[in-house]
Please model this.
Amino acid sequence: MSKLYNVIKMIIPGAKQKTYGTGAIKSVKPNVPKTKDALKEAAHKIKMAKIPGEVFNKYKKADETISKAITKTRQDLQKIRGEKITKSGFLKGKDIKNNDKK
Model:
């Protein structure tokens, strides 16, 4: 089958794979702003892009502390209920006791 396909491919004109361009990119010219307004706008875009990361890093430690406290609370609740204590504080499906069996 593959030999037949190759023969048909050679017979039919224009069946070659199309390539675009000449290969690897050799260089790219940077898009550097030239006017003062364009420089201000570029600086503003960079500053706006950095804000989410700064906020995340600012509250990261507090968030980790809160997450640890919530996990510990869930584990304590599991202990009170007499359930298996898991690392995350959430019961897995395999750990749930099925009391409804007949």
